Amino acid sequence: MSDRERKQRFQRGPDKGRDGQSGQGRDNPRDQGRDHGRRQPRRGRESGGGDGPAILYGWHTVIMALANPQRKILKLILTENAARRLAEEKIDTRVAPIMVRPDEIDRRLGPDAVHQGLLAEVEPLESPDLDSLPQDGIVLVLDQITDPHNVGAILRSAAAFAVKAIITTARHSPEATGVLAKSASGALELVPMITVPNLARALNELNDLGFMTVGLDSEGAENISAIPLQQPLALVLGAEGSGLRRLTRETCSVVARLDMPGEIKSLNVSNAAVLALYVGASKLGLMG
Fold first, then answer.
1. N or C: which end of the chain has fewer CB within 10 A?
2. What percentage of the chain's residues is helix, strand, coil (to nearest 5)?
3. Is residue 101 within 8 Å of 83, Cβ to Cβ?
4. DSSP state of 105
5. Cα–Cα dist 273/158, whole Å
6. CB atoms inside a 10 Å sphere around CB 229
7. Residue 88: pLDDT band by 50, 70, 90 thresholds?
8. DSSP string spanning 53-88?
9. CA angle at 221 for the pair 218 and 223, rounded to the nearest 5°
10. Which of 199, 72, 62 shows the shortest CA–CA distance to 140?
11. Beta strand 98-99 with 73-78: parallel, antiparallel or unpaired?
């Protein structure tokens, strides 16, 4: 069941009765050009807010949302066991919870969702403008990465490395809800997500703001470990399989590769992200 189907089912109530180290494929020129001519909003919602509220489920995901004063909680659905645990840990639910049986949450989310007895309906978070990003540290830019598990894992790694923001496209990116939020394990509350309609334009703006924009591509001229990196740094990751699109590569100030000593020379995009973050944070002196 997709996140969109889960949202629709939740809103209407229970029913009755290729790799990620960019550059392993080629971009789609038709998709690359669709964003041209659209104005970039000055203020937006987190990635994939969609129509209506977002759905969060699972212990860490919901607890982090409850602890975030910027997150508006619209509805909180709990099982008896989850409510007892919240009370034992003295966690403020912020809204009056709705008590249900576990199978009711199962019916709303589907059998594969590990909800641990918690489900919340929330407002998407506001996202910052590009020109308000700090002039230090690292941001991540995602070029049409569509797998919510991968984006969620990238968010979790981004939180671990104190990434300032994740920038992604308005189209060809997963909603900031459901599977993505569960995979992020609460990191959605810690790392701002900025949605842009045109990635090349956003990269140009980052270049103008003084960011060093480094695209990760297996065909990059140099190993990222050999490049002198500087803050603020934007690491750009491409989609699973197709990698960075042509215009994205051309807009980055540097295109680098991650060299692997083994027979397999490429990584899943979430693994490539954490490795690039480690290299970047180490070279920038951000590891403590």
1. C
2. 35, 20, 45
3. no
4. H
5. 8
6. 19
7. very high
8. -EEEESHHHHHHHHH-TTSPEEEEEE-HHHHHHHHH
9. 70
10. 199
11. parallel
Greatest pairwise CA separation for the chain in angstroms: 62
C-alpha 153 chain-centroid distance: 8
User: 131-136 long-range contacts, Cβ below 8 Å, gap at least 24?
Assistant: 131/205, 131/209, 133/164, 133/165, 133/209, 133/232, 134/164, 134/232, 135/209, 135/210, 135/231, 135/232, 136/231, 136/232
d(CA 126, CA 184) in angstroms, rounded, equals: 18
Does pLDDT of 28 surpass 70? no
Contact yes or no for 233/284 (Cβ under 8 A): yes
Residue 180 near residue 61 (C-beta atoms within 8 A): no
- Domains of the chain are 54-122 (no CATH), 127-283 (3.40.1280.10)
Q: What is the DSSP letter of 97?
A: P
Average pLDDT over residues 116-139: 95
**What average pLDDT score do residues 40-53 get?**
52
pLDDT at 29 exceeding the cut of 50: no
229-270: pLDDT as tens digits: 999 999 999 987 778 999 999 999 999 999 989 988 788 999
- Residue 239 tokens read as 């989609």
Q: Which of 140, 96, 102 minimizes the C-alpha distance to 118? A: 102
